[in-house]
Amino acid sequence: MLIRRETPADVAAVHAVTSAAFARPGTAGEVTEARLLSELRACDAWLPALTLVAEGRGGEVLGHVVCTRGRVVAVPVLALGPLSVRPEDQRRGVGTALVHAVLGAADALGEPLVALLGSPAYYARFGFRPSAEYRITPPVPEWDAHFQVRALSAHDTGIHGTFAYPEPFDRV
């Protein structure tokens, strides 16, 4: 498996992976996370350097992760997600490799922190902590139990306040 930046040629495969990863039985229509990804690509918060794919031996896209530009008050930070892995490749280390790679890339770019809404049991292994530990609040108070932050090397302890996702997240 190779972790690399997404290219324009990957967009359709990434859409298919995201749709399959988040498909819910008994529902029809476009998967919310796949639509979100399309909308994020079209907004100013899109960061190509932090949009990665896991490529299999045959060149197929196994998984995808993206960080987009979020904010804590006026401070630019990152929002991680969606993270998608083909169902047949889940629980094989693809998601873990993608998260490690995107966190390393974000740190190398001098980003201060990454925030996400997700499973604390899954994301704790990457150093994510409850956002309250950093005095950062989620945009929706009910998200508190699942809203997490990972400080990076450039983290400034003075960054605190309410996190804001890029605008396309408001429609999810």
Automatic annotation (TrEMBL):
Recorded superkingdom: Bacteria
Keywords in alphabetical order: Acyltransferase, Transferase
Domain N-acetyltransferase positions: 1-150
Gene3D superfamilies tied to this protein: 3.40.630.30
Single Gene Ontology MF annotation: acyltransferase activity, transferring groups other than amino-acyl groups
Pfam families for this protein: Acetyltransf_9
Coiled coil: none
PROSITE patterns the UniProt entry points to: GNAT (PS51186)
Name the record gives this protein: N-acetyltransferase
Organism of this sequence: Actinoallomurus iriomotensis
